[in-house]
Amino acid sequence: MERPEYEYDRIEKLPVAMDTSIKFQLLIVACINIGQIVVGYSVGWSAPIIPKLQDNTTSPLPEPITDLQASWVGSLLYIGAMIGPYVTGILSNLIGRKPCLLIGGCINVLSYILVITTKNVAMVMALRVMSGLGMGITTVCNLVYVGEIASTNIRGILLTSTGIVGITGTLIVYAVVPYVSYVATGYIALAVSIAHVVGLFFVPESPVYYAMKGQEIMAAKTLNLLGRSSDLDKVLETFAHKKGESSSKVKDWIEIFTVKSNRMSLFITFTLGALQQTSGVAVVLFFATTIFQLAGSSIRPDLATIIIGVTRLVSSLIAPTFVERSGRKILLLVSMIACAVSLGVLGLYFYLDRVKSPAIESIGWLPLVALIIYFFSYEAGFGTIPNAIVGEMFRANVRANGSALAITLTWLVGFGLTTGFNSMIDVLGGDVTFWIFGGSCIVAFFFTFFFVPETKGKTLNEIQDMMS
């Protein structure tokens, strides 16, 4: 069957050296990932900030916040985060991926201006929602964009790199925020947010967006710059049957549920994300300092959180190193089992503490060790691979909407857990709470084994064929 003629057939295709194209992709992702630093910063911000807001000497507020207000400071991030992806889902197909990235970056700038100018608790609540909104837009758009511009042989590496950079942002919070003023924490993030917005002006629009809009020449030029000229036919043929059709946002949303490959993509990405949240990661990040205080650990909470941050950063390098060698699935399986064991040990510590075991006095170091093992294991696979999978799933015309739906449903679970964490501790105790988190990791292991496909070395079109 003869291939249809496209407009790009009539333009000159300039040769681009492979090493040059890879460097270009890395440079683009570096600009994109500055935003992930802000995302990580926003996620970890509440852990050292809550003690500041509960202390008259360090709080910018007229009076210390209550425990209930502290819970909201941690969890309100998810309210904005659940709205943000839908902004991406609606606008990314309408105005493009790049404008959505800029919108997310500008919202992050505004949120940290609010930190600098905080006068009352209502402003703290508002800035957390705004931070979540910027986080939601940035996270989803980054995954969609990087998945569309990356070459197949390095797509997994580039997608998992977003997780590494996010962890760097959280580490900055843990290492710096406890030792600076509340206002200074805003200036730090504001500087990074401005650098992110400036960097975004230098990245190209996604070639998939150009193809979706019938701008074949622009799609061809962009793919050529990315060193992916051989993918031109595949990208354009995806939308060839839609030529002349009017775009329907409602139809795109409906296709998430009516097209089998999209339906399977949503099932896999949401379930993985929900199990990721019920492993307790958000709770530990938001309430890291509180957890060490509850455990009565002999390790200083501020030092413990720094150690955990460094552990997360180091272990997150494992996934990009091996994801294109061993594949996604094996990393996930090993990571999930190790997470389950470490959370079980942490639950055991809380149990011994509850029954007043004399052994507790000699193992005050155990909570830190258990959390180090947990985060090392988590970031080596469970914390990074699901995000990469989100960037690889769904058909191109619903990729932004599908990713938005999967991630917001995931964050809804996270919101529920962070809001109810103190109640879980009061009602169930630390032991049962962390055993529940460990049980989620075991469920995730079996789900991954039976349902998650291996996407290593597959093009986005080939992945969709696997899901059909």
From TrEMBL:
The chain crosses the membrane at residues 26-50, 70-88, 100-117, 123-145, 157-177, 183-203, 266-291, 303-323, 330-352, 364-390, 402-421, 433-452. PANTHER family: GH17672P (PTHR48021:SF47), PTHR48021. Belongs to the major facilitator superfamily. Sugar transporter (TC 2.A.1.1) family. Trehalose transporter subfamily. Residues 28-456 form the Major facilitator superfamily (MFS) profile domain. Its main location: membrane. This is Facilitated trehalose transporter Tret1-like isoform X1. It is found in: Cell membrane. Signal peptide: none annotated. GO terms for cellular component: plasma membrane. The keyword Transmembrane applies. It comes from Papilio xuthus. Keywords: Cell membrane, Glycoprotein, Membrane, Transmembrane, Transmembrane helix, Transport. GO terms for molecular function: transmembrane transporter activity. It is a multi-pass membrane protein. Gene3D superfamilies: MFS general substrate transporter like domains. The keyword Transmembrane helix applies.
